Amino acid sequence: METVVSGIRPTGNLHLGNYYGAVKSFLQMQNEYNCYFFIADWHSLTTRPKPEDIIQSANTILAEYLACGLDPEKATIYVQSDVKEVLELYLYFNMNAYLGELERTTTFKEKARKQPDNVNAGLLTYPTLMAADILIHKAAKVPVGKDQEQNMEMARKFARRFNSMYGVEYLKEPESFSLSAKAVKIPGLDGSGKMGKSEGNCIYLMDDEATIKKKVMKAVTDAGPTVPNSEKPEVIQNLFTLMEVVSSPDTYKFFDEKWNDCSIRYGDLKKQLAADINVAVAPIRERINEFKSNTDYLNKVARIGAEKSRENAAQTLKEVREIIGFRSVGF
Length: 331
Ligand code: TYM
Fold this sequence. Notes:
Blueprint: E1 3-8, H1 16-29, E2 34-39, H2 51-68, E3 76-79, H3 85-95, H4 99-103, H5 106-114, H6 121-124, H7 126-135, E4 141-143, H8 149-166, E5 175-177, H9 209-217, H10 234-246, H11 249-260, H12 266-293, H13 295-324
Parallel strand pairs: 1-2, 2-3, 4-5
Helix pairs in contact: 2-12, 3-7, 3-13, 7-8, 9-12, 10-12
Ligand 1 binds near residues 130, 142, 144 and 147.
């Protein structure tokens, strides 16, 4: 059975981008693959979270994973910082990663621009840690949204480099996975492109009906189409892109036809979109609090996940150490 690995940083609640870009694939894949889904808490250290928030933030994502339907009986669900083996592989990849290629990644450049007083080595080596997360379990497939494509390219590069460096065919190049034919990018409704935490434009799985409605009704639009069948400007396309993932094909078609014959009323489209988002997230929202308050269960899931993940990670490390030429002292 092929292996799947993916993770999400615990920097707040899950939003629609996380859900449609990643978690929906997790849900399908846990039935068909050997899955490892984790909470990337080491990755979140680049933004200096407070010690008292660390466990709480990880628990939030863990509760949300479970509320979405991730099943610890089917998938290995764990917290990244519980699997120290990852760090050793991170070190090996760092030894063979070049400053130039790390500095050129778009996410590094973006982060360096956003937090100029904290351009740390963790930000620079973000792609090597991500490669270690993936390759420690020898993943064949990685369900991620479009924004992770460059990091995935880097993971493949580090796998190839390791093989050629040691003259082995050991690490396989992991593929990005998406449920749809192309990678998913959930837009923000403020005209800023992607929905994301740092963009501050998220609709969260936790949001109640009124909040969802308020956020959707505020979405940026324009004066409306005047020429039939014209191309949609980006802000309008964003609404339709979201509608394509949350609404039924008939609803999408209805509003698309209204656009094409210039009779569209954005207020109606937004109301429908808000209602459909609410239908999609309501059952999840209801379960999040249940899981969140059950810390005993969350701890149990994390412990079992960490054990399973460490066992597999230790096996990979043993092999990697042999390839690199380290002595094996048997512990
Ligand atoms: P993160 O925490 O930013 O996002 C988690 C997942 O959600 C997807 N996503 C989106 N997809 C579509 N549209 C959006 N607007 C949107 N916003 C977020 C992301 O593509 C991602 O799949 N580097 C990763 C975490 C990570 C990881 C890994 C992932 C660390 N190690 C190993 C896979 C494998 C990140 O920052 O994702």
